[in-house]
Amino acid sequence: MDKKRLAVNMAAQLLAFAVNMGISFFLARIIEEQIGENTYGFVTLANQFVLYAQIVVSALNTMASRFVTIHIHRGEKQTASEYFSSIFFGNVLMAVIFLIPALVIVLFMGYMPFLNVPKEILRDVQLLWFFVFGNFFLSIITSVYGVSTYAMNRLDLTSIRTMIADILRIGFLFVTFFVWRPTLWYIGVASVISTAYIAFWNRRFTRQLLPDIRMSWSNFRWKNVWELVSLGAWNSLTRLGQQLLDGIGVLLSGALILDGNASMTLLALATMVPTAISNLMGTIVGVFNPQITIAYAEGDKEKLVGIIKSSNRILIFLMSIPIAFLTAYGLDFYRLWQPSKDPLALQKLSILAVGVLYVSMSIQVLYHVFIITKKVKWNSLVLLGSGILSSVMSVILLKTTDLGAACFPLSSMATGLLRNLIFTPIYAASCLKVRWNRFYSDILLGFLSIGTITLLGLGSRMVYPIHSWGSLILMGMVTGPLSLLLNFFIILRKEERKMVLEMAGSRLKGAR
Q: C-alpha angle with apex 139: 194 to 174, nearest 5 degrees?
């Protein structure tokens, strides 16, 4: 494993992630306070609609990095160029197909009762969705250019540009929100600016890192598109199942619960932190994915399994802390962050939403195993089935109990835990042809780490109650490093400790 490159990639990815999350939490409070109470849910809902469109697009794009990377590292440059070109022109075609339904939704939004948009903010929401959909089209057309930094294991380049793009986004929003009257559609415009900046640099990186890749119509191959779609369609089902588990609650709560917009906004706010933690987990896993793919391309099974096991432990080392902190300090955080909302309701919803991560945190990297081995069928069917089951359970609970918006994260957590305890680790072991229980020890380590840190956090709250942002930050500055120290000795093996120390050392040298 290239520890130096891993350190650079991870540091850059985490920094970009921190900037993006900071912007999201800043926006949520500004929108609720200055634009109108219970309006933030429409921002989340717009992004949820885009995610459903991306499910279809992912049929072509999910396997893009895998195929281009493997052919490049096998020296098959012409084949890599053909896949690259086929992906690009296939994305252009899909953007044209999605243009018509996007325009229909935007133009006739006021006549769609399931959206329930108040008349006083209808134009604002329409403009927001127009720019959100525009950002979607721009991102899918230019997405193939992001393959270059993945293929050459230079995710740090993309992360740095992403961070700058987020700074541009917050700069634009800062000026517009404080110079003019705040409106929702400024958020959509800011996203377009950010995506355009990233697309520009990804295209430059492609020319620099993959000079032998030729993107042209003559390299377009329908057979490559069909191959990618036939495999990627299973990943589309995977994303649909995941969306049914994680995202449909916002839409259904607005349509099925009596106080629709209030419940939708409450659920959107409560799931922000769990979603942020899940995205952070994906960011960290993404740092390991190029090396996992390269190891698979080289046919080195021992190296491949070693990287997977190390990434599981490093994931636990880092991710158990925010999960445990949300469990221990969530009530204090929500009371400070959203003073106009019920902090106990937000905390209950967020704990239900983060519950599935108690297990998936320890084995998240295994989902990439299904992609590189091209054994995505059964994982897709199981995840889709759990998503459908979760949605049905949510509606049943909503009709037969008084749980309200809690039905959605509760159902998602129950089905997600069953899937990740029974299916995922066993099937991944089968794909890698290792013993069936190889990854259960990592799950137990994850429980141990989260439990220990949660107890530490609850104990610290008893000694030093939290009443302000200052006391919350101070508590984090004390318990955070202590939690890392505990994880360093409890979770990491000798080789991972050495890796973490070398990563930290390389960052300190780079800062001098």
A: 20
pLDDT in tens, 256-296: 554 556 677 777 788 888 888 888 888 788 778 777 887 78
For residue 301, give the nearest of 430, 427, 433 by alpha carbon. Answer: 433
User: What is the token pair recorded at 29?
Assistant: 């409070």
- 328 vs 282: CA distance, rounded Å: 23
Over residues 91-141, the pLDDT tens digits come to 888 888 888 888 888 888 877 766 677 777 788 888 888 998 898 899 888
Angle at 145 between CA 141 and CA 151, to 5 degrees: 140
Helix (H, G, I), strand (E, B) or coil at 472: helix
Contact between 63 and 145 (Cβ < 8 Å): no
Q: What is the pLDDT of residue 1?
A: 52
The answer to whether the CB of 151 falls within 8 A of the CB of 97 is no
Alpha-carbon span 52 to 38, nearest angstrom = 23
Cα–Cα distance measured from residue 408 to residue 299, given in angstroms and rounded to the nearest whole number = 42
Residue 179's Cβ-count burial label (10 Å; 0-12, 13-18, 19+) is: exposed
Q: How confident is the model at residue 38 (pLDDT cuts 50, 70, 90)?
A: low
**Amino acid letter, 147:** V
Has residue 331 got a pLDDT over 60?
yes
Q: Could you tell me the two tokens for 428?
A: 């991944």
Rounded to whole angstroms, the Cα distance separating 357 from 19 reads: 22
| CA geometry: angle 445, 446, 452, nearest 5 deg | 90
AA identity, residue 428: A
Query: Could you tell me which residues come within 8 angstroms of residue 470 by beta carbon, excluding any fewer than 6 positions away?
Result: none
What is the rounded (10 degree) CA torsion for 274, 189, 22, 502? Answer: 90
The residue among 440 and 504 whose pLDDT is bigger is: 440
Residues 43, 48: Cα–Cα separation, whole Å:
9
Neighbours of 262 (CB within 10 A): 17
Rg (CA), the chain: 23
**CA separation, residue 502 to residues 4, 7, 160, 286 (Å):** 8, 8, 22, 20
pTM of the complete model: 0.67
3-class DSSP state for residue 490?
helix
H helices present in 74-121, as ranges: 77-107
Provide the angle, in degrees to the nearest 10, between the axes of the packed helices 155-179 and 185-209: 160
Q: Map 186-201 to HEC letters.
A: HHHHHHHHHHHHHHHH
Helical ranges in 247-365 per DSSP H = 248-256, 260-270, 272-298, 301-337, 343-354, 357-363
Contact 66, 371 (CB under 8 A): yes
Structure-block tokens of residue 150 = 């993945």
